[in-house]
Amino acid sequence: MVEFKFIFDFGSPKAYLVYNMVPGIEERTGVKADYVPVLLGGIFKSTNNVSPIEAFKTVPAKGKYDDLDTARFVKKHGIDFNFNSHFPINTLNLMRGAIYAKENDFFEDYIKVIFKSMWVDNKKMDELDVIKTVLEENKLPAQNIFEGTQDQNIKSKLIENTSKAVEDGLFGVPSFLIDNELFFGKETLQDVEDLIKGKVA
């Protein structure tokens, strides 16, 4: 059995773009991905990495090209996408919520709703009132999720996921681990798919 992990944080626009592509890989390969919530800020801190926005400050041309590359990708794959005007957004509560949702029966709905709210609907998803409204409007158990984000086991699981990601060589998201082989970024999607197909052939 091939282990196919998709490691993500809602705060990464590239993670949202890749999230839209994972179902196609699953369908074409017959292998389901294990979605692993992590805290990107924790990964950056542990690896001395910085966000692309920070990195681009010293090379503006890279930022301009990245915008162009993103626009091409969005158009090619027909993805609904709006860069969040509130960026960067603190995703700690959202990622704890993802851990809670994964341990219950609404993980797929939760990540779909949060990603859409972040990267389509331009919501300021680090404000608790906004999160609560989004969850309630989408028939998700807001009160249970909020309580879950304060549970020590949920907090510890997110820390554990993030620490394990660093141990596995991650320095950012979106990342994939295919039987512990690391792939980073949307540019590796085809390589990810090819490797999985080769393993299941």
List the helices and strands and how they pair.
Blueprint: E1 4-8, H1 13-19, H2 22-29, E2 34-37, H3 40-47, H4 52-56, H5 60-77, H6 92-102, H7 107-119, H8 128-137, H9 142-149, H10 152-167, E3 175-178, E4 181-184, H11 189-200
Parallel strand pairs: 1-2
Antiparallel strand pairs: 1-3, 3-4
Keywords:
11 helices, 201 residues, four-stranded mixed β-sheet, 8% strand, Glutaredoxin
Task: Offer a quick outline of the entry.
It is built from eleven helices and four strands. It has 201 residues and is an alpha+beta fold.
Report on this model:
This protein has 201 residues and is an alpha+beta fold. The protein has a single domain, classed as Glutaredoxin, CATH 3.40.30.10. It has 11 helices and 4 strands. It has a 4-stranded mixed sheet with strand order 2-1-3-4, sandwiched between helices. Helix 3 packs across helix 10, helix 6 packs antiparallel against helix 7 and helix 6 crosses helix 10. The longest helix has 18 residues. It is globular. It starts with a strand and ends with a helix. The mean pLDDT is 97.
CATH architecture: 3-Layer(aba) Sandwich
* Sheet with most strands: strand arrangement: 2-1-3-4
Q: Would you report the number of β strands? A: 4
Shape: globular
Q: Helical content, roughly?
A: 55-70%
Encode the helix/strand succession as letters: EHHEHHHHHHHHEEH
Unreliable stretches: none
Structural class assignment: alpha+beta
Q: Tell me the CATH superfamily.
A: Glutaredoxin
